[in-house]
Amino acid sequence: MAEEIYRELTKLCGKDLEQAENEEIYAALLNLVQTQSRKQEVPVTGRKLYYISAEFLIGKLLSNNLINLGLYDDVKAALSKAGKNLSDIEELENEPSLGNGGLGRLAACFLDSLATMNLPGDGIGLRYHCGLFHQNFSDGLQSTTPDYWLNGVDWTERTEKVYPVTLAGKEYKARLYKLAVTGYEGRTNSLNLFDLDTIDESVIQEGIHFDKTKIEQNLTLFLYPDDSDEEGRLLRIYQQYLMVSAGAQMILEECAARGCDFHNLADYAAIQINDTHPSMVIPELIRLLGENGIEFEEAVQIVTDTCAYTNHTILAEALETWPRHYLDEVVPQLMPIIEKLDALVREKTPDAVTYIIDSENRVHMAHMDIHFSHSTNGVAALHTQILKDTELANFYRLYPEKFNNKTNGITFRRWLLKCNQELAAEIEHLIGPGFKKNADELEKLMQYTEDDAVLNKLYMIKKDNKKALADWLWRKQGVKTNPDAMFLIQSKRLHEYKRQQLNLLFLIHQYYEIRAGHTPATPIVSIFGAKAAPAYVIAQDIIHALLTLSKVIAEDPEVSKWMQIVFVENYNVTAAEKMIPACDLSEQISLASKEASGTGNMKFMLNGALTLGTMDGANVEIAERVGTGNIYIFGQTSNQVIRRYADGDYCAREWYEGDPNIRRAIDFLTSEQMLAAGHEENLARLKNELTGKDWFQTLPDFNAYIVRKTQAMQDYATNPRAWTRSALINIAQAGFFSSDRTIAEYNNDIWHLDK
Ligand code: 26Q
Predict the structure, then answer these.
(1) What stretch of H or E contains 111?
(2) What is the pLDDT of residues 38-76, one digit of tens each?
C-alpha cells in the first residue's frame, strides 16, 4: 500500500518525491485526499440534516483527513522513504479560522461524527476570507491583523452554483463552495460555504479595519468576534442573511431534486439552528415557501416541523436582539413575515416576555426560534436546567415538550487519535481499537488503575507530550519551559465570566508567597491561550496584566525558579492540539451558571489532565463520572451565584477591604514593579473593575480557588502515582463526552435521519 501511495504521489507531483518541494507534495496530498473522499460520497434517500452555523472551526485538514480515510500511516511511510516528514508538510497548511471558539468547534466536531456514523448531514456556513483576526502581542498588548488563510492552497472547492440574495434592496450572487467532510471509516459529507465573487481584500485598511460601506467588497471578509461594536453588528445581519437565504434556497433545491413537493419538506430536511446567528432561516423559508405557492399558515407549520434550535449561552447580553430598524434596512422582505409571526405569538399568549418584537421595537431572535421550531436544547444538563428554571422559564411553561438537553461532545478522532498519537497507541495496545468508534470502550481502562507498568507508561507519555510542547513553544515564541514542572493550562476565549482574572490573582498570590519564602510544592508553568474581542476593553486589560506579570516574574531569579507564565500567541485549533496533550491541570474556573457547557474541559480530560473547576456547565457531568476524588472542585454553586445576583447585594469592595490576601493581590496590579513593566492605564482600569464591580464574582471564589489549587499542586508533587491513576480514571471515563454520543442523541430525539 505504501508503494502505491508513493507512486500516486509521484504522479501527482509530476516529479520524484525525493526531488519534490514540500509545497508540491502538500498540493499532491490534497489532491489525493479529495479524490479518495469523493469515493465515499453516498446518495441521500431519507431525511437529511442541515447544520446551519455562522462558524465552523474545523482546524487543519490534511492529517485529519488522512487519518479518517485510513491513509495516514501509508502516506507517512511513503514520505519518509523519500526522506520527507509529514509534519513538515502539515506546517504548510493554513488553519481555516472560521470560528470564535466553542460554538464553532462544536459544529466541526458534529460534522466529523455525522460522517463517521454514516449519517446524512451537511454544514451550511460562510467562507470568510480572513476569518477571525490573527493575534499578536506587542508591548504587552494584543494587536490584531487579518488572517489570510485562503492564500496558497486551500481546501474549499468552487462550484458553479450561485443563488440570488437581496440585501438592502440590491441583488447579490452567493456562490457555493464545498469542503469535503470525511468520516472515520465512514462516508463523506459536505460543508457548504457561501461567498461573493466580488470580495476585495484591498478594502482592508490598517489592522483589521476596512471600509464598512462597500458591502459588495467586504461582506465575507471577516468573522466578527463574539462581542462587537455597533457597526460590526449591522454587517453581521448582512452576513447572516446571505448565509440563510442562499442556504435555504440550496436546501429547497436539493429536496426538490429528490422529489419533495415542499408540503412534505420536513420528511426531507431537518435544519439545526446553531444559536441565534442563523435564525433568519425561519422567516426566509416561510418567504420562499410562499413564493412556491404555500399559504402562510401551512408554511409556518412546515418550517416549525423542519427546524430545531440550540441555545449556547445564558449570558443575557449575548442573546441576539436586533433593533427593528436594522432589519427594516437590510432585510425588508422578512419584516412582514416576522410581524405576522409576532402576531401569532400574541394570539397564543398574553405573556409579553415571549413576544418576538418587544415594546421598544427590538426583535428577539431566540424567541422566534423557540416559538417556531419544534425543539429547543441546551448544551449541558445544568445549562438546560437553568434555561428551564430561569432564563427561558416563560417559554418552558408554554412548551415543556420542546425543551431537551444535549450535553456537548468532542470528536475523539481529532482530540485523541490525531493530537495524541502516543496515548492513542497505548490505549489501543491495552484495550484494542474498538474505542475509536465506540468511545464507551475506554471504560475497559479501569482494569489498569492498579497496574504500575501502565501508570508508568502513562506518566512517560505525558512527559513526552510536555517536552513536545516545550519544543514547540521554543520554536514558535522563543520561550524556554521546564517539562519537569507542573503544566497548568487555561485556554479558551478571553471573557470575564471565564475568569482568567481569577487565575491572575492566584499567580500574584503565589508570587508573594514565594517572595515571603513559602515556596510551593512544585514548580509550575501556567499557560494561557486566549483571544479577546478588540472592542472588549477589560479583556484587553486582563491580557495586559498577565503579560506584564509574566515579565515581572521572568526578571526575578528567585521567583522564576518556581513559577512561569506563558501566554501562547494566536490560540487556535492547531495550538490546542499541541497544548492539550501536555496538560497536567486543566483550568475550568468560570463563574458557576455562566459557562453553558465548555468543551475544552472534555478535551483535557480525554488527554489525561485533571480538572480544577467550578460546578459549572459540563464540569458537573465530568465530576459525576470521575468521582470527587479525581477532580478538584471549588467555589460557589450555581444556585448560590444565581441567588447572589437576585439579591443584588454583592459588593466587591467589601471583599477587597475585608480580606488582606485579596487586597494584597489586587493592589499588586498597580505596584511599582507592575507599573515599571506595564501600562498604568490598563492596570488601574482592571484594578478598578475588580474592586468596584467584579460582575462575575471573582473575589468570593478567591480563597477556595487558592486552597484547591494548592492542594492539586501538593498532590501532583508528592504522589505522582496517585496523580497518574486519577489521570487514567479521567481518560477511562471520558467516553460519554464523545460527540458520537451527542449526535446519536440528537438523531434519536430530534432529527430521525436514515442511514
Ligand atoms: C453575537 C452577536 C454579534 C456578534 C457576535 C455574536 C456571537 C458570536 C459567537 C455570540 C456568541 C458566539 C459564540 C458563543 C460560544 O462559543 N458559546 C459556547 O458554545 C459552546 C458550545 O456549545 C459551549 O461549550 C460554551 O460553554 C459556550 O460559551
Answers:
(1) helix 102-116
(2) 999 999 999 999 999 999 999 999 999 999 999 999 999
Ligand 1 mean position to 204 CA, how many Å? 26
**Which residue out of 105, 388, 603, 725 is catalytically annotated?**
603
For 196-317, strand residue ranges (E) read 269-274, 307-310
Q: Collapse the DSSP code of 592 into the 3-class scheme (helix H, G, I; strand E, B; otherwise coil) and give the result.
A: coil
**Is 312 one of the annotated active-site residues of the chain?**
yes
User: Cα–Cα distances in Å, from 402 out to 367, 372, 420, 603, 671?
Assistant: 13, 11, 39, 30, 54
Annotated active-site residue 603? The verdict is yes
- The one-character DSSP state at 418 is I
Q: From residue 484, how far is each of 464, 470, 537 by CA, in Å?
A: 11, 10, 36
- Catalytic (active site) residue 498: yes
> Candidates 110, 222, 313, 408: which one to mutate for ligand 1, based on the most atoms within 8 Å of Cβ?
313
Strand 188-195 vs strand 170-182: parallel, antiparallel, or unpaired? Answer: antiparallel
Using the mean position of ligand 1's atoms as its centre, give its distance from the Cα of residue 193 in Å: 20
> Which residues, 6 or more positions from 246, have their beta carbon under 8 angstroms from its beta carbon?
163, 165, 174, 176, 194
Partnered with residue 588 across adjacent β-strands are 613
**What is the length of the chain?**
755
Helix spans in 258-392 (H): 265-268, 281-291, 296-306, 324-330, 335-348, 365-371, 381-386
Encode pLDDT of 708-717 as tens digits.
999 999 999 9
E strand intervals along 38-156: 48-52, 121-126, 134-138, 141-145
The residue contributing the CA closest to ligand 1 atom 14 is 103
Amino acid at 187: R
**What pLDDT, in 10s, does the model give residues 461-471?**
999 999 999 99
Atom of ligand 1 nearest to the CA of 595: 26
Report how far residue 204's alpha carbon sits from residue 184's, in angstroms, rounded to the nearest whole number. 39
CA of 102 to the centre of ligand 1 (A): 7
Secondary structure element (H or E) that encloses residue 552, with its range:
helix 537-554
> What separation in Å is there between the alpha carbon of 104 and the centre of ligand 1?
8
- Residue found by looking up cell 480580606 in the block: 659
Pocket of ligand 1 (CB under 6 A): 100-103, 106, 224, 226, 228, 233, 236, 312-313, 318, 320, 379, 408, 595-599, 617
pLDDT band, residue 232 (cuts 50/70/90) = confident
- DSSP H or E stretch at residue 94: none
135 φ, ψ to 5°?
-105, 130
Instruction: Please report the pLDDT score of residue 1 as a whole number.
Output: 66
Q: Is 644 exposed, middle or buried (0-12, 13-18, 19+ CB in 10 A)?
A: middle
Whether the CB-CB separation of 521 and 714 falls below 8 Å is answered with: yes
Cα–Cα distance between 507 and 565 in angstroms, integer? 9
- Scanning 629-697, the segments in alpha helix (DSSP H) are 638-647, 652-658, 660-668, 672-677, 680-692
